[in-house]
Amino acid sequence: MEERGSIGRDGGQQQDGNGRAVAIADGDVIEMEAAAASTVASSGQQGDDAAGGVHVQGPRWKRFLAYVGPGFLISMAYLDPSNLQTDLQAGYSHRYELLWVLLFGFIFVLIIQSLAAKLGIVTGRHLAELCMSEYPKPVRYGLWFFAELGVIAATIPGVLGTALAYNMVLDLPFWAGVLICAATVILLLGLQSYGVRKLEFMIAVFMLIMASCFFIELSHVNPPMNELIEGLFIPRLKGHYAISDAVALISALVVPSLTLKSASVLFKNILGRSRSIFYGLALLASGQSCAVVTTYSGQYIMQGFSGMRVFIIYLFAPCLTMVPTLIICGIGGALRVRQLINIAAVILSFVLPFALVPLLKFSSCCSMIGPYKNSTWITRISWILSLVIIGINTYFFCTSFVSWLVYSDLPRFAKAIISTLVFPFMAAYIAAVIYLAFRKVSTNAVLPSSSVSCEIEVAEVPRQDNKDEVLALHC
Question: CA distances (Å), 286 to each of 136, 161, 318, in order?
Fold first, then answer.
């Protein structure tokens, strides 16, 4: 829930975000909302720019490269270990028949990314800052809590995947992989002090490793192109659990029977030890970069909601994300990786509306972004797709919970206590989502003094927090 920030780069102002997962899990949307606005605001800064209004000048290819770094951060939304696990299960059970679900999810995420990027360009602020200025104090604190919870849940799969990868490639104990992952995250985040471009470059290296391993494995498998094309463009739901696996690709709420750990054994048996190493390297790059990017995004959440000084955020925000993650992963251990990833997915599905609904409201509001607001058909499509995703998550969680409650071996009084606690919480949760959806936006944002297009330089929009200087826009 942190599209694009204003944490200082070299003591100045910078903006960037983060990302998550191969098939659009709910975490993807949250993380990509955080990251998507970075595509533009950060791209307006070249190299290790100084603070202030910075312009991207020079030939077109040079201006294009200014967008590549933030683009790598956003692309991590498709490649984290939790959705890798879900995708492996879908491919194992249905081969290429559910590729159309990934295509549908990709289109949905592109829409959300474009809305987040536009909101960041026009207002010069990321979503956390806009929520801070828009909602009353209790709502702000609630959104902050859910955002931090979402960042922790999004980081857990990255740490787990990294620990498993170290075990596969180097035979390190699981707990050692967890500690190495945490140390590496802190080290890589320290690159910010030398300019955010260094961090973007490291993420690009991880992406290159993943892509190389993928194509090496793809060359060995040599999939039939006709089945690939049919699976990509012809919607089908055949075979057992096709619907649940399709939902898992969208929401990541269904627990695979095929896990990251068992997949490594499968690759080793089929491809051999040498080629299974490529899977371990890809998982290592995926998990490590996921942990870095999600922790990085937590800085912008904290900055937006708290307004703390930059050096405090650099020190405190990573600890707020990594310490709970390490405790959870350490307690869970290697034997509970599947359960932990599924719990993280459930948490992400719950916090999704608290990022997605404000994004849709702000980007469709005339008083917020004036003539740049979403068109009617974009607004309708975005709301329909968002309601479908939120509805799927809520339905499967509720039905799964009720089924577990009915068929569990717990005594009746325990079931009654759990029901008394959970169902009022669900009612309050639904009421909170409805409140965000129907509350009228009251904040008037200052628009940039000059238009932004690919034909002119991209300048960072200066922030104006003095409400007396706010320009009222009427459409």
Answer: 38, 8, 19
Q: Which residue has 């939120």 as its token pair?
A: 390
Query: In sequence order, which residues have a C-beta less than 8 Å from that of residue 403 and are 6 or more positions away?
Result: none
Say if pTM beats, i.e. exceeds, 0.85: no
Cβ atoms of residues 127 and 358 within 8 Å = yes
Please, are residues 305 and 34 in contact by the beta-carbon 8 Å criterion?
no
Angle ∠(123,125,128) on CA atoms, nearest 5? 130
- What tokens appear for 254 in the block? 């269904």
The count of residues in the chain is 475
The answer to whether 126 and 5 are in contact (CB under 8 A) is yes
CA distance linking residue 355 with residue 390, whole number of Å:
12
pLDDT tens for 291-345 read: 998 998 899 899 899 888 887 888 888 888 999 998 998 888 877 887 888 788 8
Q: What is the DSSP string of 200-236?
A: HHHHHHHHHHHHHHHHHHHHHH---HHHHHHHHHS--
Q: Where are the domains positioned within the chain? A: 26-443
Element containing residue 190 per DSSP (H, E):
none
